[in-house]
User: Which sequence fits this backbone?
């Protein structure tokens, strides 16, 4: 059973960079054909895919967030990390870590998803 655990800052000031680390257990982030993703859900709105990093470290980003997004990984810790720069209060959301396969990558339906962590952008 794959499990994903988010760890995030809780509160970020406007213009700063949000950093979210996803720790994976029960499976390796280098296992063929899987994509490791970040998803957000603003208050009162639906889920939105942010981006993914593949088993071979290729990255994919939502066009609407691409200019501010970077996803990297640490295979020694079985972790991947989202960095979202120049945040504004509109980036306030619950942030999730997830695993996609080839058929679901780029969407909001996933094989597995963490419980999520609230990140608030406020001064």
Assistant:
């Amino acid at each position: 059973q794959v499990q994903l655990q988010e760890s995030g800052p809780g509160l970020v000031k406007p213009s700063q960079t949000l950093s979210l680390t996803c720790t994976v257990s029960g499976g390796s982030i280098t296992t063929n054909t899987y994509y490791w993703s970040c998803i957000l859900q603003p208050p009162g709105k639906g889920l939105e895919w942010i981006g993914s990093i593949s088993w071979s470290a290729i990255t994919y980003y939502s066009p609407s967030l691409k200019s501010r997004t970077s996803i990297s990984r640490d295979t020694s810790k079985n972790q991947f990390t989202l960095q979202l720069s120049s945040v504004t209060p509109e980036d306030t959301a619950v942030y999730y870590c997830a695993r996609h396969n080839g058929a679901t990558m780029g969407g909001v339906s996933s094989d597995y998803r963490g419980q999520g962590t609230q990140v608030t952008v406020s001064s």
